[in-house]
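Hi V.,

Quick status before I head out on leave. The structure for the redesign project is tokenized and pasted below; the design run finished overnight.
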């Protein structure tokens, strides 16, 4: 086996669990949840339950392949192997570009959070320091990345647990409310549980699904998991219910304490809960949490991008130099190239922020759906190949093939909802253009001598 194939298996189950949690639980829960609540009211919890159920099946589809083939590059490699060169090319580059944008967005807000404490530091300086430190961590070895991401994610998880515990203290015992229990009537007294009808729940599904973006990082880690046949199934089976617990648990507590139509009107509910129970530094605490959330998301995005580029290079769909590993078994060139593109996109967003962000975020929005749909489509191809070879997957997707087709139908429905919503309609229009660009890139690559 040559050196290019010797990525190190240094990620333990606890690392993989927190990597996926860190990717899926971000600043959206602390800030962005308010806009979803305004759409659906208390019924937003049902939207999360429905969306989380579909994500579970998508993750099981990915897990079925990841346990059978625990390789770097994840579903791009599976698409390449079971569907063809073009789908593998599109899946890999679509995923990589999506997370370059994620890196760009997370990096751009780091400076804003630092300025809360140190307003005199230019935002670009904070962003640059973050970029250098995180890039260095990602080039040491996979254990350094895993350990860093583990502790970043722990901070977010503890913050959410703290919010739930203190919220329950307000609901049951009136802590921070003059000893008067808040109760749970806010779930229905302000226009009912469905204040905006079923339409509100349906429209909220788009943002709910986007909030789950990042769970597929479990598949990316398969190539470096210490015992993928054990840790990947455990991580996938546990990650979805943990995310549902954190999202639904936290939002239910918030919706019990505050009328749904007032959430977001007076700042983050997270700050309000900690303020009400007598923690004056609530705003500073939140700023610390969202700062670590942003750095965590950037860290995970850079890791996944490095591995995806490495996988593409192994396929021949990216320059061969990107398959080079350092002595620690890390694809250092792929990590550095991903970092370099992050710098370029940050520069572009600085020079012409309105147009650049409009187009790039439109592509990012639809590329998440493309990623998940690709996972399910490739899983169907994978299962056909297994059946032809008279093999049975070690980690079978439940309710196959019904769950696969239902998941695809659901994702198609989400795209339809996006086409209905004026603010997101542009994403649907840009999708065929983006896929055409990838197709042209594939043809150019194949025509090269």
């Amino acid at each position: 086996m040559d050196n290019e194939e010797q990525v190190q298996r240094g990620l333990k189950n606890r690392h993989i669990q927190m990597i996926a949690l860190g990717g899926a639980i971000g600043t959206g829960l602390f800030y962005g949840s308010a806009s979803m609540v305004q759409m659906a009211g208390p019924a937003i919890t049902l939207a999360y339950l429905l969306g989380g159920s579909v994500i579970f099946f998508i993750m099981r589809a990915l897990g079925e392949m990841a346990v059978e083939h625990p390789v770097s590059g994840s579903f791009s490699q599976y698409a390449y192997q079971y569907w063809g060169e073009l789908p593998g090319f599109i899946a890999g580059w679509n995923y990589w570009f999506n997370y370059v944008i994620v890196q760009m967005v997370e990096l751009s807000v780091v400076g804003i959070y630092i300025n809360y404490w140190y307003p005199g530091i230019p935002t670009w300086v904070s962003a640059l320091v973050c970029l250098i430190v995180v890039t260095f961590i990602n080039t040491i070895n996979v254990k350094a990345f895993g350990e860093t991401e583990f502790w970043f994610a722990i901070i977010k998880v503890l913050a959410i647990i703290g919010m739930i515990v203190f919220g329950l203290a307000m609901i049951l015992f009136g802590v921070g409310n003059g000893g008067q229990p808040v109760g749970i009537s806010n779930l229905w007294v302000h226009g009912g549980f469905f204040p905006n009808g079923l339409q509100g729940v349906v429209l909220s599904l788009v943002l709910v699904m986007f909030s789950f973006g990042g769970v597929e990082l479990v598949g990316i880690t398969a190539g470096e998991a210490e015992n993928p046949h054990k840790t990947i199934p455990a991580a996938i089976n546990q990650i979805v219910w943990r995310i549902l617990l954190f999202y639904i648990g936290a939002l239910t507590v918030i919706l019990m304490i505050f009328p749904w139509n007032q959430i977001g009107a007076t700042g983050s509910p997270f700050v309000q809960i900690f303020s009400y129970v007598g923690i004056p530094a609530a705003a500073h605490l939140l700023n610390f949490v969202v700062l670590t959330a942003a750095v965590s998301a950037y860290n995970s995005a850079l890791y996944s991008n490095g591995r995806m580029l490495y996988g593409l290079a192994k396929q021949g769909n990216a320059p061969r130099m990107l398959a080079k590993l350092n002595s620690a078994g890390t694809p250092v060139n792929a990590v550095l190239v991903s970092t370099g593109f992050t710098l370029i996109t940050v520069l572009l967003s600085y020079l012409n922020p309105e147009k650049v962000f409009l187009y790039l975020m439109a592509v990012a929005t639809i590329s998440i759906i493309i990623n998940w749909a690709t996972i399910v489509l490739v899983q169907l191809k994978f299962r056909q190949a297994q059946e032809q070879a008279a093999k049975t997957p070690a980690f079978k997707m439940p309710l196959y093939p019904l769950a696969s087709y239902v998941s695809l139908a659901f994702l198609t429905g989400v795209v339809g909802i996006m086409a209905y919503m004026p603010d997101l309609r542009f994403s649907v229009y840009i999708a065929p253009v983006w896929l055409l660009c990838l197709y042209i890139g594939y043809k150019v690559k194949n025509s090269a001598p």
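Above is the designed sequence. The chain has a mean pLDDT of 82.

G. will cover questions while I'm gone.

Best,
W.
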